UniProtKB/TrEMBL annotation:
Any single Pfam family the record assigns to this protein: PhoD
Signal peptide bounds: 1-22
InterPro entries, A to Z: Metallo-depent_PP-like (IPR029052), PhoD-like_MPP (IPR018946), PhoD-like_sf (IPR038607)
The organism of origin for this protein: Pontibacter populi
PhoD-like phosphatase metallophosphatase domain span: 50-265
Top-level taxon in the UniProt lineage: Bacteria
UniProt entry tagged with the keyword S-adenosyl-L-methionine: no
UniProt keyword list: Signal
Listed Gene3D superfamilies: PhoD-like phosphatase
Protein name stated in the entry: Alkaline phosphatase family protein
Length: 339
């Protein structure tokens, strides 16, 4: 009897604690996702001024899009020390307490600037990345070649799937001549195992929105920095796969560039336009002019500290608002699409 009374008195406290925990676990899928926030290029030794604005958006999910630290080392102790600096940041701790954290990497957190499969410490670096993200020690992802993953949020009929690619671990070489990246016409970005996995994720997706994130830009072709267009066979394969699988509501996410922009194109066989939201520069941005050709760009190019936001309005169709925001939570670019 005393045990029953104790449990009865404890129940209201448990309910309060449960309701206070906002984090929507993937396994439960109890409510639709309202806000997904993302960013890249976070140098751990620069002021971390973006986190208050990120937290102000009350995200359900935060997506790292690469260069989450600037490691650039074959020494895993160095990489771990830099990851720990981010993990100890109060603003990031607040985000961790309230949102699901997922992500992928790019070259600087991979460990080798502009690197691909030639990086000899990639296996060890992969484990540090999973530690940083919070991947369980017994997760099958820790045994695969690369940090690709997928995550589905929300109840049936109102789901968002976040598909994150690894465009480093199995990427073929990319030469530079006089600081200009050369085109590798037959080179591969992902490796066959990851290509097969991606096709399966798209073909079998039951989500209404399918986000595909990776470290570098997919659509832009004219900029002279790293991009999928340096590997035209892989870029075509990716875009053809998106169209052929008929996955609904595909939106691309990318980082790397120290600028932000939204790109848009029409693909043969797709019933809706394909958008790419690039958000890059959480701690530092390109200091030159904000003039750069991109025939796919909609809205402005942003060279101020920024992060990306996707807001979902669930009705008969889902409306997605794509935003680039700044350190004071001001909006720089805003696009809407209905799927």
């Amino acid at each position: 009897m005393q045990h029953s009374t104790f449990l009865f008195r404890l129940l209201p406290l448990l309910l309060v604690l449960t309701s206070a925990c906002k984090k929507p676990l993937e396994a439960t899928n109890v409510k639709p996702v309202e806000t997904i926030v993302f960013g890249s290029c976070n140098r751990q030794d620069l002021p971390q001024v973006i986190w208050p604005a990120v937290n102000q958006n009350n995200p359900d999910v935060w997506v790292w899009l690469g260069d989450n630290i600037y490691g650039d080392s074959e020494n895993m102790d160095v990489l771990k020390q830099k990851y720990d600096m981010v993990l100890q940041e109060p603003g990031y701790k607040q985000l961790q307490a309230n949102a699901n954290i997922v992500g992928t990497w790019d070259d600087h957190d991979y460990g080798l600037n502009d690197g691909g499969k030639e990086f000899k410490m990639r296996e060890q670096s992969q484990q540090l990345f999973w530690d940083f993200i919070g991947e369980p020690a017994n997760s099958p992802r820790r045994k695969q070649q690369g940090v690709y993953s997928s995550h589905t949020y929300g109840p049936e009929g109102k789901q968002v799937k976040v598909i994150l690619l690894d465009s480093r671990y199995n990427r073929d070489s990319l030469a530079r001549i006089n600081k200009v990246y050369q085109t590798n016409y037959t080179g591969d970005m992902l490796g066959e195992e990851q290509w097969k996995w991606l096709e399966n994720e798209l073909r079998n997706s039951k989500a209404q929105i399918n986000l595909i994130g990776n470290g570098i830009q997919v659509l832009p072709e004219e900029q002279v920095f790293e991009k999928w267009a340096n590997f035209p066979a892989s870029r075509k394969r990716l875009l053809d796969m998106i169209a052929a699988t008929n996955a609904p509501g595909v939106i691309l996410l990318s980082g790397d560039r120290h600028i932000a922009e939204i790109s848009k194109t029409e693909l043969p066989g797709m019933s809706y336009p394909l958008y790419e939201v690039t958000s890059s520069g959480m701690t530092h941005v390109y200091s030159g002019g904000n003039v750069e050709p991109n025939k796919y760009r909609v809205g402005d190019l942003v060279n101020k500290l920024n992060f990306g936001v996707l807001q979902f309005n669930w009705a008969d169709n889902v409306q997605v608002e794509m935003l680039i925001k700044g350190k004071d939570n001001e909006t720089y670019v805003h696009e809407k699409a209905v799927y």
